[in-house]
Design a protein that fits this description.
With 377 residues, the protein is mainly alpha-helical. 68% of the residues lie in helices and 2% in strands. Strands 1-2 form a two-stranded antiparallel ribbon.
Length: 377
């Protein structure tokens, strides 16, 4: 057996199992307001979870070393898929984010690109640290330039789809992993000042001259800025009804499969509103506690004697999960802008769920493998 003589980290496995159960029952509850043409999403989510479990066992058999040895191949494949979206994918809701597979559903490469980016950055940082014990400023600059190019290619391709949410996640992963790499703090100060300057110029044009902004950056970016800056007024059927459903749920909610109000994207972006309306404040507290327990369990893996490559991966995984969790729940209750970012392991989606199950496989491998030295190029 694959798991023979290996100790499973149940602090990872049990929360994932509970999140799977919560996901399926919440998606079932949301089906009242989901188009019947999409089929039985709760059943589909169950199937995706089963496929994901098979994928986890395959990854346990291969071990993380296999992934680290093929990071560049995965990275190139990911970018080819992102480019192919722009060239060949059908336009859905004014976006080219998905390949449509007849009889199966849609496939979103950007979900897997998050993992490919993490793997590539982790191996690059590992190799850099193995080569330079005390790098000079010039050597660090060249390293940063190389990693930024690795970040920039999928970011541009994903932004053009357009999928701003994924681009933000790419950058969150990049900066947290680079911070963990131990490079000089001055680079982050320079990056912060540069970003502030560029955003300042962009915002100045946006607020002062709409026509100039559109002529430079296009209608798509203008529309995305409109969504971000208008979120605080709480306008829109989606947000208003989601907040009303949550606010009226009380301590224990309206009951399972009893969501009182309609709002779009009930099974994906606004899945937390469905759960909160069904199970109330108490249920929401338990769900958030479960999410926090999972995050802490992942962080605790870094305390083990593990490979430095694994530690960099853990930083990227935690950064991605925590950001998505805060952003999704925050936008659902009106505290953050609506960005279309889903709730990990809960929201419906084959591509996103399989990408998270790959992460589960990586985490289980980290918890089971004994440290040894290796170097990747």
């Amino acid at each position: 057996m694959v798991l023979k003589n290996k100790k499973i980290n149940f602090k990872i496995v049990i929360p994932i199992f509970l999140l799977a159960v919560i996901s399926i029952i919440t998606i079932y509850s949301a089906s009242t307001y989901i188009s019947k043409s999409m089929g039985n999403l709760a059943l589909k989510q169950s199937i995706w979870y089963l496929i994901g479990i098979v994928l986890v066992f395959i990854l346990i058999k291969l071990k993380n070393e296999y992934l680290y040895s093929h990071t560049w191949t995965l990275y190139v494949i990911g970018n080819i898929l992102l480019l192919s979206l722009l060239l060949f994918a059908p336009e859905i809701n004014s976006s080219k984010c998905w390949f449509v597979i007849p009889g199966v559903g849609s496939f979103q490469p950007s979900e897997f690109m998050k993992i490919f980016l993490m793997l590539t950055l982790a191996t690059m940082i590992h190799n850099f640290r193995a080569e330079y014990e005390d790098p000079s400023i010039k050597e660090e600059f060249i390293f940063i330039l190389k990693t930024f190019i690795v970040l920039l290619i999928p970011s541009v391709l994903t932004f053009l789809q357009p999928d701003t949410g994924c681009v933000i996640i790419y950058f969150i992963i990049y900066f947290t992993m680079m911070f963990a790499s131990g490079i000089r703090a001055r680079w982050f100060v320079i990056a912060f000042l540069t970003i502030v300057l560029l955003l300042g110029i962009i915002f100045l044009i946006y607020f002062s001259n709409d026509k100039l902004f559109i002529s430079i950056f296009g209608n798509n970016l203008f529309y995305r800025f409109e969504r971000i800056f208008n979120w605080s007024n709480g306008s829109g059927l989606q947000l208003e009804n989601a907040k009303a459903a949550i606010g009226s749920a009380g301590l224990f909610g309206h009951g399972f499969n009893n969501t009182p109000l309609y709002f779009p994207e009930a099974g994906t972006d606004f899945i937390f509103a469905v759960f909160a309306s069904n199970f109330g404040l108490f249920g929401s507290f338990l769900l958030i506690s479960l999410i926090v327990f999972l995050d802490v369990s992942i962080i605790m893996l870094a305390k083990k004697k593990i490979l430095d490559t694994d530690k960099y991966i853990l930083v990227g995984i935690v950064a991605m999960l925590v950001f998505q969790q805060i952003q999704n729940i925050g936008m659902t209750v009106g505290l953050l802008p609506i960005t279309g970012i889903t709730l990990p392991f809960i929201s419906y989606g084959g591509s996103s769920l399989l990408s998270y199950m790959i992460i589960v496989g990586i985490l289980i491998n980290i918890s089971m493998e004994k440290p040894h030295k290796y170097k990747y190029k």
